[in-house]
Design goal:
Layout lengths: L1 E8 L5 E9 L2 E3 L10 E2 L4 E4 L1 E6 L1 E2 L2 E2 L5 H13 L2 E6 L6 H16 L7 E2 L2 E3 L22 H10 L4 E6 L6 H8 L4 E4 L6 H10 L3 E2 L15 H7 L5 E4 L8 H11 L4 E3 L12 E5 L2 E6 L2 E4 L4 E4 L3 H10 L4 H8 L1 H6 L17 E4 L5 E6 L2 E2 L4
Parallel strand pairs: 1-4, 1-5, 6-9, 9-10, 11-12, 12-13, 13-14, 14-15, 15-16
Antiparallel strand pairs: 1-2, 2-3, 5-21, 7-8, 17-18, 18-19, 19-20, 21-22, 22-23
């Protein structure tokens, strides 16, 4: 299948006029494909499929429930909305509950699912968090870092855990980080840590920050905290919920200047209420209420988002992030965090043909996964 006359987002993270071919589900002849037999995209934008590395659910389903049919429904919704790869995020819950969800994910990842978003790992968000910064996590199940528990869960997940969160000020956290960082990316999250504790975590092997600004101390001139420690460590990437609710648009622009387009990853942090009407929903066994675009616990605490990553990327652009950088932050950067950037994240020869076709206003027109067109409502 050949395509021509497109603005293609390639390996230089820029749009370049040209065409491309899809052979056996992979890109070929990128920027050099043409001919009368090629599909004319009439100047449309072609970007890599988006990669959401922090997503709890959608369509009324929560990943942590371990429901196989629910996970399939989630993956279908994501694919239809331009998210071609994802690492579902679990919540702070008992080990046996997490084990069920992880085994479900492992089974799903072994199967072929045409037209569904590809599950490329698991984001283990919890239970090793600070009670003071638990946010919408369930405080009843918080624990101190436990490497043996991580190992058991990773075995149940068949090695799928790609990101493991921890609050570095907890007892045993640095030893935990040193060990787990040899297995996957360790992310600082839901933490009351100051600058020194965060810097120590980074030295121990932490390489990522979960939802920057949220569930952590603010950046102050005498107490820079996690944000300051991460900003000055070039090896550390950071997630950002660019929805204007969790993070004000000015803070989105500030994070962009502080970390640059090379280190920021746009995420949805979407909940089961994503894609659903307002009202009552569930999150990790807790009741939440969706009112417009804001989801809250019963006590008023802001939970995750009700938007998908494509919507988050468009909002980032509306806040002033350049299009080409916003695309990178929603595709290549998250793919790199989970170690999948050789396979996905740019339109490049040899990579999986996961791509989106957008119009001039960056509206989503078509989605392809492994070269196959995804049916959209």
């Amino acid at each position: 299948m050949k395509f021509k006359n497109a603005r293609v987002y390639g390996k230089e993270f820029k749009f370049v006029r040209g065409g491309f071919e899809v052979k056996n589900g992979r890109f070929a002849n990128v920027l050099s494909c043409s001919g009368d037999d090629a599909i004319d995209l009439e100047g449309a934008y072609v970007i890599p499929g988006l990669v959401d590395i922090h997503n709890h659910g959608n369509s009324g389903y929560d990943f942590s429930d371990g429901n196989p049919a629910g996970l399939e429904t989630m993956a279908a919704y994501l694919a239809q909305n331009g998210v071609t790869s994802f690492t579902p995020a679990s919540m702070t819950l008992p080990e046996q509950v997490l084990e069920k969800a992880y085994r479900t994910a492992a089974r799903f990842s072994r199967e072929m699912h045409r037209g569904l978003s590809v599950l490329r790992g698991i984001h283990m968000e919890g239970p090793f968090f600070s009670a003071a910064k638990k946010g919408a996590q369930n405080g009843a199940y918080l624990k101190n870092p436990d490497f043996d528990m991580f190992e058991r869960l990773n075995e149940a997940a068949e090695g799928l855990i790609k990101i493991a969160d921890v609050a570095p000020e907890l007892p045993g956290a640095l030893e935990y980080i040193e060990k787990v960082s040899k297995r996957c990316v360790v992310s600082v999250a839901h933490t009351d840590a100051g600058y020194e504790e965060a810097a120590a975590a980074i030295r121990a092997g932490a390489g990522h920050i979960t939802h920057l600004f949220n569930a952590m101390l603010p950046l102050l001139h005498r107490a820079p905290g996690v944000i300051g420690a991460a900003a000055e460590a070039d090896s550390v990437s950071a997630e950002l919920i660019s929805d204007g609710v969790h993070v004000h648009e000015s803070a989105v622009r500030a994070a962009y200047k502080l970390f640059g387009p090379e280190r920021l990853c746009l995420i949805s942090d979407a909940l089961s209420c994503c894609g659903m009407p307002g009202g009552k929903h569930m999150l990790g066994g807790q009741k939440i209420r969706l009112d417009g675009t804001i989801a809250r616990l019963e006590d008023g605490t802001i939970a995750g988002s009700a938007n998908n990553l494509f919507g988050i990327m468009r909002l980032a652009i509306s806040f002033g992030i350049p299009r080409e950088d916003a695309v990178r932050m929603a595709s290549f950067n998250p793919a790199r965090v989970i170690g999948a950037d050789k396979e996905i994240g740019t339109v490049e020869n040899g990579k999986s043909a996961d791509f989106l076709v957008l119009d001039d206003a960056f509206n989503l027109k078509k989605v392809y996964i492994n070269g196959f067109l995804v049916e959209r409502p």
